[in-house]
């Protein structure tokens, strides 16, 4: 089935896919740049806390001003235009909206919006990996109960990795490891919004015109985003994080099958069937040869000697034994590719990756020695970064999820490099995100037989 042809047919029949976009940041803006160029897509509305920012984003990506003149969702549906609002709930509830792209990047907002989609019967394309890592396993269940699809966002790395994993398994290859590349040094865990641009090498001019949020980009650098994305992949693809989380081994594309194989075979993996992120920098700061900084990969295993010989005959790069091989994609285009998720959900009735289980968690970890009374400022900030952990281990120690480590106050000191626990912070039990997360923890602890520490 051709997604493009089917979308074109919907456009010709006057039945475009009607989309609500929530969040007009970098990801949302990139989607807006492509949506008018894809037949059969109609962005009915854009919700953002700052409507002026949404209008500026639309103008920056080339939308004419008249495209965003609709004063309501109903007018947008009637005219083919787009309504810009600060009321996400009203946009989700608007008659005619079929699928919601949640791109706020805010965990609490993402949870609230998914639950509203469940109430109103709107499919969800979940750009918001922060909310997915916090409560995705339960949100996916709620979506299934409501009869809607809950999908990763194509173009972002979790969806692309899930696609590679699905390809491998459908072709009959055991998945040894799956993941992505990034720029990483151990010192980056302590990076703050004040130091991020120097590490990235962006000029002030690039930052000024590029929709760049320093705290968000710092979450990419300090390891939090990698942990969140690998938790999403593990929970979607039935893979498990290692007991010590991510190792970020330096590795180029030619060495993937050598490095990302079990330790018993000479690699770095604690076991097969895991997730890992490879660094584009050697530990001394030198660039890795043929790095995978922007890409994704899957390492597969030949299930027989015959398949091992086929790997060699068709030029697939393997380890010395010929047993392990890797496939990779050297880029991801985030919002520029998002239309594939919208099309897959609406045309095929199939998500582009989706959370299935609670196998991995991301726990807030102190960037420096923190004092009692300090206020946490969340991912990419000055106080904590996110560390990947097996979900069972997180539940057993009462780990504080990174998605809730914002705006709450420490009740005791925490040493640098130490994971935070629920009991280390003072937070209101009436917070909706806290309640849902606690419900999810209790549910999966009961189902897995894991002792739950509060």
SSE layout:
Layout: H1 3-12, E1 17-22, H2 26-34, E2 41-47, H3 51-60, H4 73-79, E3 83-85, H5 88-93, E4 99-102, H6 107-120, E5 123-126, H7 129-146, E6 150-152, H8 157-170, E7 175-182, H9 196-200, H10 204-209, H11 214-221, H12 224-237, H13 256-259, E8 274-279, E9 296-301, H14 305-313, E10 324-329, H15 339-348, E11 360-366, E12 375-377, E13 384-390, H16 391-397, E14 406-410, E15 425-426, H17 432-448
Parallel strand pairs: 1-2, 1-4, 2-3, 4-5, 5-6, 7-8
Antiparallel strand pairs: 7-9, 9-10, 11-13, 12-14, 14-15
Helix pairs in contact: 1-15, 6-7, 7-12, 7-17, 8-12
What are the main properties of this structure?
single chain; 454 residues; alpha/beta; Rossmann fold; Type Iii Antifreeze Protein Isoform Hplc 12; six-stranded parallel sheet; four-stranded mixed sheet; 17% strand; NAD(P)-bd_dom_sf; nucleotide binding
Characterization of this structure:
- InterPro entries: DRL_cat (IPR048423), Gfo/Idh/MocA-like_OxRdtase_N (IPR000683), NAD(P)-bd_dom_sf (IPR036291), SAF (IPR013974).
- One of its GO terms (molecular function) is nucleotide binding.
- Pfam families: DRL_cat, GFO_IDH_MocA, SAF.
- This is SAF domain protein.
- The protein has 454 residues and is α/β, with parallel strands linked by helices.
- The chain has three domains: 3-153, NAD(P)-binding Rossmann-like Domain (Rossmann fold); 158-184 and 223-331, no CATH class; 360-448, Antifreeze-like/N-acetylneuraminic acid synthase C-terminal domain (Type Iii Antifreeze Protein Isoform Hplc 12), CATH 3.90.1210.10.
- The chain has helices spanning 3-12, 26-34, 51-60, 73-79, 88-93, 107-120, 129-146, 157-170, 196-200, 204-209, 214-221, 224-237, 256-259, 305-313, 339-348, 391-397, 432-448, and strands spanning 17-22, 41-47, 83-85, 99-102, 123-126, 150-152, 175-182, 274-279, 296-301, 324-329, 360-366, 375-377, 384-390, 406-410, 425-426.
- The strands form four sheets. The chain has a six-stranded parallel sheet, with helices on both faces. A four-stranded mixed sheet has the order 8-7-9-10. The chain has a three-stranded antiparallel sheet with strand order 12-14-15, with no helix packed on it.
- Helix 6 (107-120) packs parallel to helix 7, helix 7 (129-146) runs parallel beside helix 12 and helix 7 packs across helix 17.
- 51% of the residues are buried.
């Amino acid at each position: 089935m051709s997604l493009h042809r089917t979308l074109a047919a919907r456009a010709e029949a006057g039945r475009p896919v009607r989309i609500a976009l929530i969040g007009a940041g970098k990801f949302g803006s990139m989607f807006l740049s492509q949506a008018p160029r894809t037949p059969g897509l109609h962005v009915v509305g854009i919700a953002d806390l700052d409507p002026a920012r949404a209008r500026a984003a639309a103008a920056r990506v080339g939308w004419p001003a008249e495209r965003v003149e609709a004063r309501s969702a109903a007018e947008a549906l009637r005219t083919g235009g787009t309504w810009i609002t600060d009321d996400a709930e009203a946009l989700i509830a608007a008659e005619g909206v079929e699928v919601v792209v949640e791109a706020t990047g805010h965990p609490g907002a993402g949870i609230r919006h998914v639950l509203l989609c469940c109430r109103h019967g709107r499919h969800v394309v979940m750009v918001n990996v922060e909310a997915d890592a916090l409560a995705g396993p339960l949100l996916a269940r709620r979506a299934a109960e409501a009869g809607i699809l809950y999908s990763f966002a194509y173009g972002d790395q979790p969806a692309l990795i899930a696609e590679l994993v699905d390809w491998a398994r459908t072709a009959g290859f055991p998945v040894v490891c799956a993941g992505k590349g990034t720029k990483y040094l151990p010192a980056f865990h302590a990076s703050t919004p004040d130091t991020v641009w120097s590490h990235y090498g962006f000029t002030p001019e690039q930052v000024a015109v590029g929709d760049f949020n320093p705290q968000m980009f710092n979450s990419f650098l300090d390891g939090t985003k990698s942990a969140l994305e690998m938790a999403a992949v593990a929970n979607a693809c039935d893979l498990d994080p290692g007991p010590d989380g991510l190792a970020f081994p330096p590795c180029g594309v030619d060495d993937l099958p050598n490095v990302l194989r079990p330790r018993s075979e000479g690699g770095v993996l604690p076991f097969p069937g895991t997730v890992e992120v490879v660094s584009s920098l050697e530990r001394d700061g030198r660039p890795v040869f043929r790095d995978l900084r922007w890409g994704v990969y899957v390492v597969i295993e030949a299930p027989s000697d015959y398949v091992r010989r086929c790997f060699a005959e068709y030029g697939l790069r393997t380890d010395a034994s010929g047993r392990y091989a890797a496939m990779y994609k050297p880029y991801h285009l985030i919002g520029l590719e998002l239309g594939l998720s919208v099309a897959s959900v609406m045309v095929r009735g199939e998500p582009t990756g989706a959370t299935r289980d609670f196998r991995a968690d991301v726990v807030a970890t102190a960037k420096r020695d923190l004092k009692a009374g300090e206020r946490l400022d969340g991912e990419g900030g000055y106080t904590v970064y996110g560390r990947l952990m097996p979900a069972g281990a997180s539940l057993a120690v009462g780990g504080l999820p990174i998605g809730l480590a914002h705006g709450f106050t420490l009740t005791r000191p925490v040493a640098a490099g130490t994971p935070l626990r629920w009991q280390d912070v003072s937070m209101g039990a009436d917070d909706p995100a806290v309640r849902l997360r606690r419900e999810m923890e209790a549910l999966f602890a009961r189902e897995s037989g894991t002792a739950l520490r509060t």
